[in-house]
Amino acid sequence: MLTKTDLKAIESLFDRKFDGKFKSAFEIAFNPIKKDLRKIKSDLKVAISVFDRITINHEERIKILESLRPALA
Which sequence spans correspond to the domains of the chain? Predict the structure, then answer.
């Protein structure tokens, strides 16, 4: 007959084996997805920084034009 200690040892061993196999299968399945997400995140950062520079450049041009407006009037 199995004791509680034996059952706990079996459960612990089973959990470790199952967790290890599940984790490795999970990593194999999701590593390509994580790689794609990292690339998308990087591309978004680049796009945002480009548009931020364009926006700042336009704001500077608008300030210059607004400062010239009184002289033109």
Answer: 37-72
